Structures are given as C-alpha cells and as structure tokens.
C-alpha cells in the first residue's frame, strides 16, 4: 500500500513539473500586475463617465442632442465597472424649454379667446418676475405658473391654469453593474485567477511534499 501511495505521489509530482512551469512567486506577482492594471481601468472608466455626464449637461444647456448624449452615457454606464454617476442627471434646461412651450400654447389660447392679442404676455411677465426674484432655475417654471394664477384676478383661473411637464421624466440616475466584461473586469478576473492559482499551488506543493516526495525548490 505504501508503495502504491509513493508511486502515486511521484506521478502527481511528474504531472506538476510538466504543467507548473511558473513558480509561485511569479504567479503572485502576475496577479498583482493585473490587479494594478484593473485599478487603472476602473479609474479611467469613472473619468470617462464624468466626461460623458458633462457632455449631457452641456447639450442640455445649449439645446443640443440631449437624448443622444444621454443614451451614450447610459450605454457606457451599463457596460463598464465604476462608471456610475453619483449625482442624478437633471435636464433642467430641457424641462424649462418644454414648460415654455406649454406657456406659449396657454397664451395663444388666451389671445384667441380675447379676439386678438392680449394686452400682455402673462406667462412671459411671470417668468421675468421669477427670474428677477432669484428663483432657482429648477423651480422657475412652477414659480411662473403660480405667479400667473395669483396676479391675474380678472381672468378665469381655469384658463390660466397649466399642466407643466412631470419633472421625474427629466431626471435620470445610472448605476454601473457589479461585474461586466470590460477591460477592468477582465483584468480583475485574471488577477483573481492567478492569485487563487498561486494559493492552490502552495497548498498542493506543501501537502504533496510533506506526504510523498521531496520537491525541487523551483516548483514551490
């Protein structure tokens, strides 16, 4: 029985020598190399995501291709590690432009019902007042709608009332996945694989050497 056990140990040793061409320390440092590389890619992902976020905000401010930029940010965030934007993406200017369209429609209805142009543009006046008061741009549309209702007692309130766009439709939050096969994810996978391999190799070498044969130092 001992002879069979010893022969089996030698067989394992020969196979180990055939396949384990790298020593344990080389496996460990290879794991460390890919880990450092993954940190670089993870950082790069975050920087790129912030740049794409700024592109969305810039397009929102300049009335550019907002939703095209937003789709680009969404796709990048969903396919890269550490690419989530901590702050929500709020299309404030797009919301205000859409709110202005609502005001224009409401003003045109008032003009039509009065048999011609009204004496004043109620909603434009309201917007100017709210702007002069220093109302934040995120609340300016609602301020104008409320001001128009409160300062025109001679007009039917139902005619002055407007339904502003839902703000929730102009706010977006993106979170990156816990794992994905981008450059950072691949490097992390390789790093973990080499690290686990180095640990398993040390355990196998220690156990086999202790039980069966004396192993060469270069295979430890």
Question: Keyphrases for this structure?
Answer:
mainly alpha; 66% helix; two-stranded antiparallel ribbon; single chain; 2 domains
Descriptive report:
The chain contains eight helices and two strands, in the order αααβααααβα. The chain is an all-alpha fold. The chain has two domains: 2-63 and 179-219; 92-172. α2 (24-61) packs antiparallel against α8 (183-211). The radius of gyration is 33 Å and the shape is rod-shaped.
Oligomer kind: single chain
Q: Whole-Å distance between the termini?
A: 27 Å
Count of runs of 4 or more consecutive helical residues: 8
Enumerate the strands of the largest sheet in spatial order, edge to edge or round the barrel.
Answer: 1-2
Low-confidence stretches: none
The largest pleated sheet is described as: 2 strands, antiparallel
- SSE order: HHHEHHHHEH
Shape, please? rod-shaped
Strand content: under 5%
Short description:
The chain is mainly α and 220 residues long. It is 66% helix and 2% strand.
Write the layout of secondary structure elements.
Layout: H1 2-19, H2 24-61, H3 66-78, E1 89-90, H4 92-113, H5 122-132, H6 140-150, H7 157-160, E2 171-172, H8 183-211
Antiparallel strand pairs: 1-2
Helix pairs in contact: 2-3, 2-8, 5-6
